[in-house]
Write a structure and sequence with these properties.
Blueprint lengths: L1 H58 L3 H15 L1 E7 L25 E6 L6 E9 L3 E8 L1 H51 L14 H50 L5 H32 L5 E5 H11 L1 H7 L2 E5 L4 E5 H17 L6 E7 L2 E7 L30 H11 L3 E7 L2 E7 L2
Parallel strand pairs: 6-8
Antiparallel strand pairs: 1-4, 2-3, 3-4, 5-7, 8-9, 9-11, 10-11
Helix pairs in contact: 1-3, 3-4, 4-5, 5-9, 6-8, 8-9
Length: about 450
């Protein structure tokens, strides 16, 4: 769960940092590409108003007020005002600055001009307006201030981004901690359901999507528990009910075979009935075992001798060994292992029985135990037809689940028992060799 917590917290942090960086880049790009346009647009809106106001002061001959206004514009906004009498042929320097480099013949009223100053090479924007009494008013400011503002805004963007990232880190940690606690509860609940534990703990009391997910998990848990119990009850009851008629069928078939029946065809049919009744008996036995495993919550683990267990299984199937003339090689089995003896014996018996049953005539079956690894190896028939993706599925055998000899529940039973005992397992195919490996810790 710590890994999940860290992962979600990191993702939230990186998402928020990504958003902040994108916002910063957009802001920086906006400043670079649009600040000039915005600034010039504002100048073109403000300069005519300034010129009109100065014209009013001139008309009313409010010299003192005009001087104060020009000084205010220069000191506060960096705007220079030049006023010229047309017959003077030069700007009036006493009211705002130098007009050097400008010619009256080239001036047009209410026109904006962008040009460079000779002394500083700095760009300036100029607005000229002709007013009453043949006077000219020139309103101008330097555009170099824009570069200064851009640099300052760039520094503020970087500083703001760093602060935002720190705030994002703190907020993501606080927020993710609250969310992750509920996610971990839901995760534990889902894990319990996957392990067929249907307790009613780990509920999440929320009114958002996580709360809905918790309620849906609870509903699913309840319905799944009920369905499994109903299925186990059905399998158990039906299996017990089938035992009696199958026993009657098999016993009558045995009696018919023992009688002196001249009709060989009828005798063969009796053998088929007997064989299929044994098949049904074995199938029912395994179904009952599966239903018991499904209802188990605890195991009775204890230490058992592996060699004694395997030799006991081999004795029960020695008729296969003799009929196929198999050589059994045992190695390193005199070790004790801790498992649930009853169920592990069933799993191991199925594996060994399959190894003997599907071995080729006059071949070798090897059973080896070394460093917690139990390997059961045999030379199998039609090994190319075995689909490893299907061998643990119920009623699936051979290529794509084609039915062969057996109930088709043996390896399904093996898988459930090994999973229940938390024993890791692996199946390997190599040319003609089929190897089943158990990791018994």
């Amino acid at each position: 769960m710590k890994r999940t917590s860290s992962s979600i917290s990191k993702k939230m942090f990186f998402y928020s940092v990504g958003i902040i960086i994108v916002a910063m880049l957009v802001s920086y790009g906006f400043n670079i590409f649009f600040l000039d346009l915005y600034y010039k647009r504002e100048i073109k809106k403000d300069f005519p108003e300034i010129a009109i106001r100065i014209e009013r002061y001139l008309e009313k001959n409010e010299t003192e007020t005009l001087e104060k206004y020009i000084k205010l514009l220069r000191e506060k906004n960096g705007i220079t005002i030049l006023i010229m009498e047309e017959n003077e042929k030069k700007w009036n320097n006493s009211r705002g600055g130098s007009g050097k480099g400008f010619s009256l013949e080239n001036l047009k009223s209410e026109e904006f001009i962008i040009k460079k100053q000779r002394e500083t090479e700095a760009e300036i924007i100029v607005y000229n307006r002709k007013v009453l009494n043949n006077r000219w008013i020139s309103v101008r400011t330097s555009l170099s201030v824009l570069d200064y503002y851009k640099n300052e805004m760039g520094y503020f963007n970087i500083l703001g981004t760093v602060i935002a990232i720190l705030i994002s880190l703190i907020c993501s940690r606080i927020f993710s901690k609250k969310v992750i606690e509920d996610i971990e509860r839901l995760s534990r609940k889902a894990e319990d359901i996957s392990n067929l534990k249907f307790d009613k703990n780990n509920l999440v009391e929320r009114d958002d999507e996580l709360g809905k997910l918790g309620k849906n998990l609870e509903k699913m848990s309840f319905k799944l528990e009920k369905s499994i119990k109903d299925l186990e009850s059905f399998v158990s009851n039906s299996s017990h009910e089938l035992k009696t008629p199958i026993a009657i069928i098999s016993s009558n078939a045995e009696l018919l075979i023992k009688e002196d029946i001249e009709n060989k065809r009828l005798q063969e049919k009796c053998r088929v009935i007997l064989r299929e009744s044994f098949y049904m008996k074995e199938l029912i036995s395994k179904l009952l075992t599966l239903s018991k495993i499904g209802s188990l919550t605890t195991l009775e683990k204890k230490s058992i001798n592996l060699e004694e267990l395997i030799k006991g299984i081999l004795e029960r199937y020695d008729y296969i060994e003799f009929s196929k003339n198999l050589e059994i090689k045992l190695n390193g089995l005199n070790e004790n292992i801790v498992v649930d003896k009853d169920f592990f014996s069933i799993a191991l018996e199925n594996i060994i029985h399959n190894a003997l049953k599907y071995s080729e005539q006059d071949s070798v079956v090897k059973i080896n135990y070394n460093k917690n690894l139990l390997e059961i190896e045999n030379e199998a028939k039609n090994i190319k037809n075995i689909n490893l993706n299907l061998i643990f599925e119920p009623f699936s055998r051979g290529e794509n689940g084609v039915r062969e000899e057996g109930t088709g529940l043996g390896l399904t039973l093996v898988k459930k028992i090994l999973d229940m005992n938390k024993i890791k397992y692996e199946v390997k195919l190599n040319e003609k060799v089929f190897k089943f490996i158990l990791n018994i810790n």
